[in-house]
Design goal:
The complex is a heterodimer of chains A (about 300) and B (about 325). The longest helix of chain A has about 30 residues. Helices cover about 65% and strands about 0% of the residues of chain A. Chain A contains 13 helices and no strands. In chain B, strand 1 and strand 2 form a beta hairpin. With about 325 residues, chain B is an all-alpha fold. At the A-B interface, helix 1, helix 3, helix 4, helix 5 and helix 8 of A face helix 1, helix 2, helix 4, helix 5 and helix 6 of B.
């Protein structure tokens, strides 16, 4: 993980992953990128970014100019945003707030429970730990989306439909998070450190809170970023269990995109722009960490 | 490791004596702490996942055996009737056909392109982080937004693609009425969003391959292309298998892209030409008659399909990509 966060003094920086490509090996010129490589990658980057840029351009235009070519920005961005926000059926601002609340709560919870369980699996000895860890890995393969009907009936039973806890509580834990934290804790925290803390009379909980959690901070940041983005972008379950009165931002987009407002493209694209912007900012600031987190995913298989 | 467990005890004994009762209590507490707190720490995951993750998936089987009445709010045991009706339901088979078609069109090119992209990224280069960010940026956009944006890019009359086709002298394509064109457009969205992400996963695995393997291969005169297929691909085979399983699980449940592509309508085109199974489940269950039993039966069949195709893909790739014994 290429991260710049500072570790607590007592913890040596984890050795994962070694940056081999920095070493100038005899055959290194083989790994030098050619101009063609750059060209292909830049082309790929342009293809990746273009639809996003284009959607922002549409959001800045007038409805009569939606289809005009070539795509050049207009000057209607703020008018469009105002009109979109004024749409009471979509309740876009409320959706943004709801999404922020849901994503934040889920992220904190996933970090907490994942680091707690990951610490236990990496550093505490208990009977059945290997079997339990295997079960957690297997839960990553369960297509939980196929359980939405009973889950929905459960929410009806609990009286949670149309409330935010219905989209928070089922996502409080995550198998991937536990596994990621366990992998990081294995390499980032030495057994000696834990033993030393025990000798000082620390309880397991205090070891977790004062020693382990600070040491796990870099991994926790990455897990938090990935979880936040995933929760923010969640569509199907909020769409099923929430009502248009209590939307998340993705639900608001769905309302904007169908029915009566379908023809007001520029307002709709102002909506997609506003819904994407928070994550875009997060991505630009923390891009390096997010990339590190995704690449770490390769190690788990 | 018995030393970690034993340490505090022996240490406590060698300490200058505290007041005896307190020592005994903290000793007992410490033992309890060592023995049970690990279970306490992993328990929240199992409880929450069990209740909100695993239980609903399994309970789907039970629900699928009942016939739900919307008006009276009652349910009646129906045995396998839902499954029997399902197998005769043309719209179900249509949805299964669409799901499979979109899955094949999206997964294969996506993973191959991701491999190539990862290979390109796996070099010394300038602006490394920037280029990596460039390829993975689609993944941060929400599926709903992607669906809306691409619905306009693939719009029939004035869409960007048809405009491009027009400027080079081709006839516009009916991106929704034509079944295969609609599959292609939806698959394109999926590929756009996931190729860079998978490329980074492959890149992570590629960087763990020792570079001297390549050096000796190039000394033997193997071309870069040959090295890619005989060294890189076999060595990251576990990762490839992993992404295939994950893509299969995700691809068969595709819902939001086709929904947004068809202007948010659950029917998936006038003739359901791009309605997927997940959409049909939603249509049966959460619109109209609330046929929970029927929808659950369909969910369960979809689950079976996912398992079967995951195994087929797994076997295919394992056979075609020969791993070496390491």
């Amino acid at each position: 993980m290429t991260t710049t966060q500072t570790l607590p003094r007592s913890v040596a920086p984890p050795p994962v992953p070694p940056r081999r490509r920095r070493g100038r090996l005899p055959g290194a010129q083989l790994w030098q990128a050619s101009p063609l490589t750059y060209l292909a990658l830049i082309l790929g980057g342009v293809l990746s970014i273009f639809p996003i840029v284009w959607s922002f351009i549409i959001a800045s235009r007038d409805n009569s100019a939606v289809y005009e070519m070539p795509p050049t920005p207009g000057d209607q961005l703020f008018t469009n945003i105002d009109r979109m926000l004024a749409n009471e059926d979509a309740a876009f601002v409320y959706g943004l707030v709801n999404s922020a609340v849901v994503s934040t709560v889920v992220t904190i919870s996933v970090i907490f429970f994942s680091s707690l369980a990951g610490f236990a699996f990496a550093k505490l000895k208990f009977r059945g730990s290997n079997a339990l860890l295997l079960i957690i890995i297997m839960t990553m393969m369960v297509p939980t989306q196929l359980g939405v009907i009973p889950l929905y009936l459960m929410m009806v039973e609990l009286g949670w439909t149309g409330t935010l806890q219905a989209v928070i509580v089922p996502f409080l834990v995550q198998g991937f998070g536990v596994f990621m934290m366990r992998q990081y804790a294995m390499s980032a925290i030495s057994d000696e450190l834990i033993e030393a803390a025990r000798l000082d009379g620390c309880s397991t909980w205090r070891i977790y809170w004062n020693v382990v959690l600070p040491a796990l901070r870099p991994a926790a940041a990455v897990l938090g970023l990935l979880t936040f983005m995933q929760t923010w972008n969640e569509f199907l379950w909020p769409f099923i269990v929430l009502t248009p009165d209590t939307p998340t931002v993705q639900y608001s987009l769905k309302i904007l995109s169908s029915g009566l407002y379908q023809t007001d493209y520029v307002a709709l694209f102002a909506g997609t722009a506003l819904a994407t912007l928070p994550l875009l900012i997060v991505f630009i600031i923390f891009g390096r960490q997010i990339i590190g987190g995704i690449m770490e995913g390769a190690v788990k298989s | 490791m018995s030393s970690a467990v034993g340490a505090p005890r022996s240490h406590a004994a060698s300490r200058p004596p505290l007041t005896p009762p307190r020592r005994r209590r903290s000793y007992r507490l410490g033992r309890w702490d060592l023995k049970y707190s690990p279970y306490l720490y992993v328990a929240p995951f199992f409880v929450l996942f069990g209740v909100f993750g695993l239980f609903p998936v399994l309970y789907t089987v039970y629900v699928s055996l009942f016939d739900y009445e919307l008006l009276s709010g009652t349910k009646e045991f129906a045995g396998l009737e839902n499954y029997r009706l399902l197998l005769e339901d043309a719209q179900f088979w249509n949805a299964a056909y669409n799901t499979l078609g979109i899955f094949v069109l999206s997964t294969m090119p996506q993973l191959i392109a991701a491999l190539m992209l990862a290979n390109l990224l796996n070099r010394q280069m300038r602006a490394r982080t920037l280029l990596r960010m460039g390829v993975v940026i689609p993944n941060i956009t929400s599926v709903a937004a992607v669906g809306i944006i691409f619905a306009l890019i693939f719009a029939d009359r004035y869409g960007l693609i048809n405009w491009l086709l027009g400027t080079v002298g081709f006839d516009p394509i009916a991106w929704r009425d034509n079944r295969f064109a609609s599959w292609f457009a939806i698959a394109f969205m999926v590929d756009w969003r996931w190729t860079g992400y998978n490329a980074l996963i492959y890149l992570g695995a590629m960087q763990a391959i020792p570079k001297d393997l390549y050096e000796s291969a190039s000394l033997d005169g193997a071309s870069t292309w040959r090295q890619f297929w005989t060294i890189t691909v076999p060595l990251i085979r576990p990762t490839i298998l992993f992404t295939i399983i994950i893509s299969t699980i995700g691809g068969f449940q595709i819902f939001t892209e086709p929904l947004m592509y068809g202007n948010g309508l659950i029917r998936g085109g006038v003739d359901h030409q791009f309605q997927t199974l997940a959409m049909y489940i939603y249509e049966k269950t959460f619109t109209g008659n609330a046929e929970y039993g029927y929808g659950s039966a369909m969910s369960w069949l979809l689950f079976m399909m996912i398992i079967i195709f995951a195994l087929i893909n797994f076997a295919l790739v394992r056979r075609s990509v020969k791993g070496d014994k390491k």
